Amino acid sequence: MDAQSRGRADEIDPADQWVLNPQTGDYELRLTQSGGDSRRRPNPPGQRGSRSAGAVREGGGERRSGARGGGRGSGPRREVPTQRGRRTANDPRGPEGSGPETAGRRKRKQPKARRKKALIWTGGVMAFVLVGLSAGAYALYQHFNSNLNTVDIGDAGNKDVTSDGPLNILIIGTDKRTGKGNEGYGDKGSAGHADTNILFHVSKDRTNATALSIPRDLITNIPDCETTQPDGTKKVVPGTQGVRFNISLGQEGRDPGCTMRTVEEITGVRPDHFMMVDFNAVKELSTAVGGVKVCLAKPVKDKDSHLDLPAGESKVQGEDALAFVRTRHSFGNQSDLDRIKVQQQFIGSMIRQMKSDDTLTSPTKLYKLANAATKALTVDKAIGSGTKLVSLAKELSKVDTKNITFVTVPVLDNPAEKVHATVVLNTAKSDPLFAMMREDTSLTEVNKQKKAAKSKQDALLKGTKAAAADVRVDVLNGGDRPGAAQETVTWLQNDQGVLKSTNKANAPAKISKTTLEYAPNQADQARALAAMMGLPGSALKQGTTDAEGLQAMVLTLGADFKGAGVPITGPTKAPADIPLANAAKAECAK
Q: Where are the beta strands (DSSP E) in 349-464?
């Protein structure tokens, strides 16, 4: 009986698993018996990988069509103890396999149920392709530990694998020429720049995800970042202003932690972890999944990438898959922004392929996926083991494919250039988009999340509110706006009547989001101040002990503070003309 037929994932015996027999090249099911005797059963002829649950016959024999009289599978049958819960000849329903079912086989489960168990068994096929593949082959994770490369990013990320809040993973594709056959790609001698970048934001309730593509040619500021050198020593790489985003990695010894800090600088969203891949990853992973379906609105024969495909649907893997995601001059206006759209379509297709029964029920494909992915991945130390990646995968697998939205950072041509080679933020559109991500607002209509948000807001507004004269608050500036604390105190006292407000100058550290900390017995004051300032429910942080005497609430203004009297609550919808793509929907590249 294979692991998918055993029920809940936490009851899987790690010894009961498909293993590769190097002598035959087949995957075989290893069954550990009560006395510790471990036996292996080869696949039926022609079945390399997934096999029917009916392959083990009542009484321990194995039923094979054409197995009698010699050939592969001939010879005496091995006896296996009767499995718990299996029917016997004395069962009033009759022995298993009797009736209309083929003898020796249990009734095949419905595809939906089988798919659900397959998802559990693999530790969750992730909502995002690069993350998802790292968690394949649950029972073999120990084998894959040695494949992983890790980087110490210091305090740039999260030391915990997951959290109760939103989850942000930065996916970095480098242009480093590592791997066989990649000599002609990227820049010769490059240390590996941040060529393709996607910030994958998973909502707190795990109902939806946003995949934000960041153009490599975006002009931005790169902050100071501490890196760990090969000898273990620490080195601070000075920041720089007005440069391409892609040099946040590789240049002057910058590591992925520097790219994570740059992403936070741009968006106000702090990445928890990173995953980095090179050219080989696209080739190996697309091959391991059995090819990825792509669609072209017109035939393409690109002399630069060597992509040669007809109009309509094709299946690509290996070099063709890499050529597809690297092609620029044959799509749209031949810019990197149009290539990003093609890459999003490719990733969406791979997600659908990974979540299909064809992949989930094939131990052979799952093994290949996990092996290829872990070899291709470089990750931060916090997720640098098979067990930790499986934990991450279980969280991300909760997101339905239809609720994964791809979007690109809104940009404009760089006005400082005559020949436009770089881009700058279109702040009128990017600011609302970043605010939505910071506030964990979905770009996809998710009924469950909408109800939860309404419930949270109702709870915030419900109940009594203190009079303005009774609100006592200390205000600190944790953002970049000079004089924000005094500006807010002046507004609260003169316009709102909150006379017990005090300017406490700068906060100990910069923060991205405004917070209001209060004691349980100050809830009425918190509701009143939140209503005045337009604070979102996520900004309110209630403590565990009551305030005493003249103790004040603490309002710390973050990078999201735009001015006194300007509501901090983020938008509920992205600007209407920002292009969005859904991972569940196939589109043709134009």
A: 378-380, 404-408, 411-413, 423-425
CA dihedral of residues 96, 97, 100, 102 (deg, nearest 10): 160
What's the number of CA atoms in the CB half-sphere (13 Å) around residue 157? 29
Residues 162, 487: Cα–Cα separation, whole Å? 37
Instruction: Kindly list the distances between the CA atom of residue 103 and the CA atoms of 67, 97, 153, in Å, as whole numbers in the listed order.
Output: 15, 4, 58
Give, for all 590 residues of the chain, the pLDDT tens digit. Answer: 333 333 334 433 333 344 555 555 444 444 444 444 444 444 433 444 333 333 333 333 333 334 334 444 444 444 434 444 444 444 444 444 444 344 444 444 444 444 333 332 232 233 333 333 333 334 455 566 777 889 999 999 988 887 788 999 999 998 876 666 666 665 666 668 999 999 999 998 899 999 999 999 999 999 999 998 878 889 999 999 999 999 999 988 899 999 999 999 999 999 999 999 888 888 888 898 889 999 999 999 999 889 999 999 999 999 999 999 989 889 988 888 999 999 999 988 988 887 776 776 777 777 777 777 778 788 999 998 877 877 887 788 888 888 999 999 999 999 999 888 999 999 989 988 998 898 888 888 755 555 555 555 555 556 789 999 999 999 999 998 899 999 999 999 999 999 999 999 999 999 988 999 999 999 999 999 998 998 887 788 999 999 999 999 999 999 888 888 888 876 777 887 888 998 888 889 88
- Dist CA 535 CA 269 (whole Å): 18
